[in-house]
Amino acid sequence: MHISPNDPKKYRYLTLPNALKVLLVHDEDAPRSAAALTVNVGHFDDPIDRQGMAHFLEHMLFLGTEKYPKVGDFQTFINRSGGSNNAWTGTENTTFFFEVSPHAFEEGLDRFGQFFTAPLFNEEAVDKERQAVDSEYKLKIKDDVRRLYQVHKETINPDHPFAKFSVGDLTTLDDRNDSSVRDELLSFYHTHYSASVMGLVLLGPQSLDELEQFTHEFFSHISSNGQPRPEITAPLVTNNETGRFIKIEPIKEVRKLTLSFTMPSIDQYYSQKPLSYIAHLLGNEGQGSLMSLLKKQGYINTLAAGGGVSGSNFREFTVSLNLTPKGLEHIDDIVTSVFQYIELIKTQGLNEWRYKEKRSVLEFAFRYQEKSRPLDTVSYLVMNLLHYSPDDIVYGDYMMAGYDEALITSLLDYLKPDNMRLVLVAQGQEYDRIAQWYHTPYSVTKFTPAQVEQWQQVALNPALSLPEQNPFICENLDPHPLVDEAGNPPQLIQDLPGFRLWYKQEHEFRVPKGVVYVAIDSPHAVSSPRNIVKTRLCVEMLLEAINESAYPAEIAGMSYNLYAHQGGVTLQLSGFSEKQPLLMKLLLDKFANRNFDPERFRNIKAQMLRNWRNAAEDKPISQLFNELTGLLQPNNPPYPTLIEALESIEVDELPAFVEAMFAELHIDTFVYGNWLKEDALALAEVLKDAFRVTDQLYGEAQRPLVRLGQRGTMTHEISCNHADSAILMYYQSRETTPRKIAIYTLANHLMSTTFFHELRTKQQLGYMVGTANLPLNRHPGLILYIQSPVAAPSQLTEAIDDFTNAFALVLLELNEAQWQASKQGLIAQIAEPDTNLRTRAQRLWVSIGNKDEHFNQRQKVITALEDLSRADMVRFIVDIVKPRTANRVVMHCQGQAHANLEPLDIGKPIESVDDFKRDAR
Prior knowledge:
The protein is an alpha+beta fold. The protein folds into 4 domains: 10-220, 2-Layer Sandwich (Cytochrome Bc1 Complex, Chain A, domain 1); 244-371 and 386-452, Cytochrome Bc1 Complex, Chain A, domain 1, CATH 3.30.830.10; 493-559 and 569-598 and 640-698, Cytochrome Bc1 Complex, Chain A, domain 1, CATH 3.30.830; 713-920, CATH 3.30.830.10. 40% of the residues lie in helices and 18% in strands. Its cofactor is Zn(2+). Endopeptidase that degrades small peptides of less than 7 kDa, such as glucagon and insulin.
């Protein structure tokens, strides 16, 4: 098996007597053990009169087996064992995965293996979980992704299984006169869930032999009917579906144009990656690219190539463009430009050196591959297990085995007008059809002969050119030798007025990568909502100006980001370190020569307004979260405030604003990874010059937080344009001590499973039900939330309050072993070692921001957790969380489905947000 030289894990591939394919992974440093099982069954296999069956079955397998019959027991076990789990249903796959502390892995596998040998399909659970599937469908009924996907299904060949409705609802999963859905579930399960079409991956610190023993013990009983998957013979599209212009009405304000070309499946060419080569050129964003030209013409904001759905007998290849209002009037011209670039690739772009350049980048990425979380690792390996040959399971995603010009040319031949479906998603077009399930208005028309002729007879456009050789590809990839103090925590190696430099050489992961953070704080940047918006505008304009020249660096394995925060802006670089100084120089040059082009300003302003207005169409629970953080963090206003400020800002205000912002600033820099100290100091000089840092007298910006104080229950209603209701309750800690962090984090950990089981699985109040740990500006916070298609905020409040009133008893009923296991599960999560350089960099950077200058906050929280007794937690629930005594904010919105029900009437409504912020100290 081909593995990376940087990968210390050991692998073993085997096939069990029942034909189950298995990959075992021994990772002695894995903080948790993980398993994933995928079965080659998905919504394509749904009976035509039982659409959503595969998805429903995925839900049901979690709800009790012969050996472990109690509904909700699996969740409780996972939570107590410091783990997590999930599953998803795709077109031709259903995948289940979980991770737990290593000591609990054997029991976890015993429980998990039962899903595939002895599920109960308990009748009461069948009845309730139907509601959960229906809630999931209703939750996304106004989700544009789902609405557009449904039109996609209705406009391809109706005989192809892609055309089926994949989610299911109460009508497709109902009991009928002649049969109950439970009987059909059992029949579907026994027909399709066969070991011969399954793959299993186990990963953990256990030895390969021990993992193999688990495999035989828990998975060799899965029955196998030995049947291969039936082949799909219907093509995804026929001549009736190509050469069509499809227009779709979205709920959000978007303008997206997609050119979609269908070809046969190309899975067998995974080792050559011919479509990656084509997508790499078509999706290029550098000078002379298709994106660059269309942007200069003011037609588009973004372009992406190479997406699309795929399956065992088809592959879509798409070019997607986000249009400006001007672009909406030039659709035929945009399509012409795309075909001009395809022609350029066909005639001048087939060069082996381009293939080799892309291959060397992938080889570097593979050679210096970094660890991911156990759960993520098993999730991607299990998909590869069924798609790649055994030798390539780990390597397949990175492989580029050879340049095959004839193969690339044969695929380019599919990218032609008569094999194209052109999809426009934009408001206000003309429509004559309504899609089923999601009620999406759309229309389908044939291309006109004039369009086809214009697109077929394209000449090369001199404004378009292919990318040059990439100057950012690294050559020197051996990490620097370690210095003596490399194992120490980050050191503050410069502490000047207005400028601090933290530095640490990375000593453990030994990859030639680095991360640089530069936080620029300025009180002017955040002194009012208007200035906060100007800061965000400047960030977007700078990113826009950088994109074309920095794109080759991204291709070569480096990334950069610039984002606004509550004190100003942060610049972050990551990836291969050798050329990071070159990238930093490029970014700073762009900043120094900044110009505020009026047309780009207009487009960016329009884009930001559109994004923020679209947030008003987000699902209710997302709107409540946004409104809550806006209510409590003055430097992080909610969308309506941002929109109001942005509407009146003009481009000529920005140059003076940037000058004022940089007149008083404070910079914190952290250089980490494969960097030497002298290079970090040299970079600091470059930064100080660029930002004119000379004896600033100014410290970093304050990040204020509104304190709730002793004001009981405060309520805040927002209006959401949605059928569902939603509620969110927030509890805030006054203190930021390790003990308080421990209490709030443990409360969330203890509540989460019971809350989900009680309010979602048992009471079926909605699909989105949960608890969350929400620290704001270092103050711990606890959140309980529900979005519901069936209950109004007043009922949801009652259900949550009943839960919190009873929860102290739940804690008292735990035996000592369960209490300790829950604590240890959480401690294991907190103490988990960083998986890779990037996650460690982020953790250290958060510590710097939190003034944890000894980098031991995590250890302090663990010590505090170990000291917490059950009595402490019961006291916390009774004093802080119980509704009668709680100081909390209850955010809610009453859905259209519940408009006639009683409004929520508890606590004190927040009449004026400004007064609330002023009084809260």
